[in-house]
Amino acid sequence: MSNASLEKLRAAMESASAPGSGEKKSYSDDTMWKPELDKTGNGFAVVRFLPTPEGEEMPWVSYFDHGFQGPGGWYIEKSLTTLNKKDPVSDYNSQLWNTGVEANKEIARKQKRRLHYVSNVYVVSDPKNPDNEGKVFKYRFGKKIFEMLKEAISPAFADEQAINPFDIRGEGANFKIKIRKVDGYWNYDKSEFDKVSPLLEDDDALEALWKKQYSLAAVTAPDQFKSYEDLQKRLKY
User: Fold this and answer.
1) Which of 34, 69, 127, 220 is a plausible cystine mate for 61, CB 3.0–4.6 Å?
2) Considering just the CA atoms, what is the radius of gyration of the chain in Å?
């Protein structure tokens, strides 16, 4: 079972601000899990981040996309800048910004890139959708949760012990996702790791679970991106 060392994870996380490559849209992907809010407007679920899939480098991948509404509808597309290529929205935003006009700068701000991360997770508890429990999914999350993963690996205070959040044997811990609505947005500040413990007690079961993971490299494969020309056509529309 592949399990990156804490040192390797630390180094990768420190250089993870710029992803190396996109993904099928999560709303049409039944392999992608997402927590849901209850009637009170809060959300709660427990997941376990899983180790690096077989033959891959890290237990997460990252990519940029753009999501904004214009006169012709919504533009929700992965950004080619993820692949270190030119992207029509980034080019257009640069043009708007360079005009120096504040109204144009505001449009560029609303159309800026969004950074996403994707990992495999085992769903321990999902009160809104109990059928998901005990299953492996891909989970897309943002900078806030990624920072919590970084802090678990490299604690800020001397009295805190580093853990490997992607370990499922005895060095990792379940992650309690707690969501509140703050100013209309989902807020994850209350989320936290539970105490360190193995996910399952049986080694064979853990090995079988690890083999159920989805390829993360496939999530960020170049063929998951549209061409510059197709994206430009959509942007103009």
Assistant:
1) 220
2) 19
Residues whose CB is less than 8 angstroms from the CB of residue 228 and which lie 6 or more positions away in sequence, other chains included: 80, 85, 86, 87, 88
Write the single-letter amino acid at 69. Answer: Q
Which residue, 113, 12, 91, 1, is CA-closest to 54?
A: 1
The span from the CA of 179 to the CA of 176, in Å, is: 10
82 φ/ψ angles, rounded to the nearest 5 degrees: -60, -35
CA distances from 203 to 100, 166, 191, 206 (A): 60, 16, 28, 5
Cα–Cα distance, 93 to 109 (Å, whole number) = 8
Per-residue pLDDT reduced to its tens digit, 183-233: 889 999 999 999 999 999 999 999 999 999 999 999 899 999 999 999 999
Specify burial of residue 182 (Cβ count, 10 A radius: 0-12, 13-18, 19+). exposed
